[in-house]
Amino acid sequence: MAMYRHGNPTEVLSPCGEEESLDTALRYGADAVYLAGKEFGMRTASKNFDYEQIKSSVVKAHEAGARLYVTCNTVPTNDEIKRLPQHFEILDDIGVDAVIVADVGVMELAKKYAPKADIHMSTQTGIVNYHTANVLYNMGAKRVVLARELSFENIAEIRARVPKELEIECFVHGAMCVSFSGRCLISAYMTGRDANRGDCAQPCRWKYHLFEENREGQYFPVEEDGDGTYLYNSRDMCMIDYIPRLAECGITSFKIEGRAKSAYYTAVTTYAYRNAVDLYYKDRENYTLPDWIRQELDKISHREYSTGFFLGNEPGQVHSNGGYIREYDVVAVCNGYENGTAFITQKNKFLVGDELDVLPPKGKPFIINVQELYNSSGESVSSAPHAMEKLAMPCKTEIPSGSFIRKKRVLH
């Protein structure tokens, strides 16, 4: 049985759309990270990584004891397939731990041109049964990322009917698609932006109304709440309350969605699942998820949470509201702490007298009150209104370097 960075048989796998997210994921305890190069990844909205950045990221990950996987999970055209051998050769030379692929032709190229890298079959492959998983294993897959449409029982049966050497990965947190395992044509039809090539315009999140052709200019809501009409909009997945069941049904890797999201999102999600997994393996018999871990996932911008399809007949996936829930703002990041003073970079405005919530890379979150602030000239200031301003903030409680500092929004 494989053991990961933190000594557990279950991996916490975090998303990285750019270098800040990668550094954050490693700082907050990810066992592994996944990212994309400038081509062949399913998130063109992310900055993604050129080859030099992938090379330096592999070094960072390995120095931290973590693994790094590169997504190559788009559906390549004839023109693109010609460029894949060189792409895989470079990734193999760089030393990435695995490539994530969705296509059996791409899989064959990866085996030939990146022989040192493991092969992970993407959720885009649509793996929903043990026979398909076994076929892919026999073809050379080290890991299968199962389709999101499976229940705990489905996953447990797959685990029981495949070789123990075949790793199983499942998404446990993040945005969900209304389509089957990310295979969707709505965006391509409506906007010309192909979701299967990483360029989804997310038309499933738009408002829709019904028109009658003889009544021009009139529209009729199909189903409506106070914010609009959403036919296809999916809730976000959140499985933090089900860590024991996720582990017991045989999932090797808990995957967090979100390569197009912020470093702060990566920090919070990695932190929550890292702590939950560690507590579970520390004492499985008496494990109970602490409220402070669950509460962290309410401190990021998210749609209403659901359990996806894990509970079988109660997917609860489609949502009637398109909006995000956002109750906290990141106001600063701590760069260092010395002699009772935190040195911070401002992200959003806050004031002397504010109560702030600190998320350290390790340990529990804690509350501080801003007593004083000083700008880079050493002058006392009453507020921090300028983005990226360097400030000194006296604080009796040590704030670890790399901590995110949040402020709860005042809801009217």
- Give the proportion of residues in helices: 25-40%
What is the CA-atom radius of gyration, in angstroms?
A: 23 Å
Strand content: 15-25%
Unreliably modeled segments: none
What's the number of helices? 11
The profile of the biggest β sheet is:
8 strands, parallel, barrel
The N- to C-terminal Cα distance equals: 52 Å
* Total count of strands: 20
Instruction: Give me the secondary-structure category.
Output: alpha/beta
Could you characterize the architecture of this molecule?
The chain has 412 residues and is of the alpha/beta class. Helix content is 25%, strand content 21%. The chain has 11 helices and 20 strands. The strands form 4 sheets. An 8-stranded parallel β-barrel has the order 1-2-3-4-5-6-7-11, surrounded by 5 helices. β16 and β17 form a beta hairpin. It is globular.
What topology does this entry show?
Blueprint: E1 11-15, H1 19-27, E2 32-36, H2 51-63, E3 67-72, H3 78-81, H4 84-94, E4 98-101, H5 104-113, E5 118-121, H6 130-139, E6 143-145, H7 152-160, E7 167-174, H8 186-191, E8 210-211, E9 219-220, E10 236-238, H9 243-248, E11 253-256, H10 263-282, H11 291-296, E12 305-306, E13 328-338, E14 341-346, E15 350-351, E16 355-359, E17 366-369, E18 383-384, E19 390-394, E20 404-408
Parallel strand pairs: 1-2, 1-11, 2-3, 3-4, 4-5, 5-6, 6-7, 7-11, 10-12
Antiparallel strand pairs: 7-10, 8-9, 13-14, 13-20, 14-19, 15-18, 16-17, 16-20
What are the main properties of this structure?
single chain; 412 residues; six-stranded antiparallel β-sheet; 11 helices; globular
